[in-house]
Amino acid sequence: MSSSNVIDGKAFAAGLRGRVAEKVAELKSQKGVVPGLAVVLVGEDPASQVYVRNKAKQTLEAGMQSFEHKLPDTTTQDDLLALVAQLNADPQVHGILVQLPLPKQIDANAVIGSIEPAKDVDGFNVVNAGRLMTGAGKPMVPCTPLGCLLLLQDRLGKDLSGKRAVVVGRSNIVGKPMAQLLLGANATVTIAHSRTADLPGECRNADILIAAVGRPEMIKGDWVKPGATVIDVGINRIETPEGKTRLVGDVAYSEAAEVAGAITPVPGGVGPMTIAVLLANCVTSAYRAAGLDDPAL
Ligand SMILES: Nc1nc2c(c(=O)[nH]1)N[C@@H](CN(C=O)c1ccc(C(=O)N[C@@H](CCC(=O)O)C(=O)O)cc1)CN2
């Protein structure tokens, strides 16, 4: 497979962030409004700390306001709900993101459910999930699946009619919304998971294969249909034989890349899209709050 078949999520995300920055500047000059993103981190998970730092940096680079709230891992659910209520009421905050995972004493669904749907830039709230599923109203769409769709449509065109898509993974954060987005783009969609009979066979049917299982290199090269577009959502840190660590996806990349028509690498594929789409969602929220149409990004 030639390197042109590698889907460069890092470059695509940089382009999207550039368009976000232009829309931020337009909103400021038209309405005097600067979009604000509040990110809440509870605890000291090292990976989450990196993601939150990158979110704040990229938010500021796009000309937006960043509000960081770092709470200890002993934080109670009531304390967190009180902070979310304060952010819901703050007119300078257009987007609220509570970094996951949360410590075990906190019910993530209760916290996500308490975020004002218009400010739920993660799109995890049941109101936004329902809007995405039914097509009623304008949802905030979860960042990682929307990032995957943008990468796919850049390769294959907006209309995925006639394409068979297989999503491996059924989480509320990636698998289920991903399937909804693919359906919305007219693909024929199967959701597969750990209890699916003949998972390799299901994958071999896919023109579009989305891997979101969280198991390092589970999807092998001979599970991939020749010419398929493979989107790898997995980000797994594994130990090398030399005792170091490296990041791998849910797809055995070098095997799959021999067969695929196009494939996202890990790192540098889907991951960077997650934060770029988060910024885009926050700008969209600010446009809506200002009574404007959604910006074309
Ligand atoms: N509230 C949320 N929590 C979490 C989400 C989310 O969308 N909302 N997603 C993940 C973590 N995440 C953002 O929060 C995220 C993960 C990975 C990347 C990324 O750019 N990855 C790089 C590699 C980074 C590395 O070296 O470790 C890549 O794939 O190239 C960005 C954001 C869980 N929590």
TrEMBL record:
Residues 142-288 form the Tetrahydrofolate dehydrogenase/cyclohydrolase NAD(P)-binding domain. Keywords: Amino-acid biosynthesis, Histidine biosynthesis, Hydrolase, Methionine biosynthesis, Multifunctional enzyme, NADP, One-carbon metabolism, Oxidoreductase, Purine biosynthesis. GO terms for molecular function: methenyltetrahydrofolate cyclohydrolase activity; methylenetetrahydrofolate dehydrogenase (NADP+) activity. Pathway: One-carbon metabolism; tetrahydrofolate interconversion. It catalyses: (6R)-5,10-methenyltetrahydrofolate + H2O = (6R)-10-formyltetrahydrofolate + H(+); (6R)-5,10-methylene-5,6,7,8-tetrahydrofolate + NADP(+) = (6R)-5,10-methenyltetrahydrofolate + NADPH. NADP(+) binds at G169, R170, S171, I235. One of its GO terms (cellular component) is cytosol. The keyword Transmembrane does not apply. Catalyzes the oxidation of 5,10-methylenetetrahydrofolate to 5,10-methenyltetrahydrofolate and then the hydrolysis of 5,10-methenyltetrahydrofolate to 10-formyltetrahydrofolate. Homodimer. Belongs to the tetrahydrofolate dehydrogenase/cyclohydrolase family. This is Bifunctional protein FolD. It comes from Limibacillus halophilus. The gene is folD.
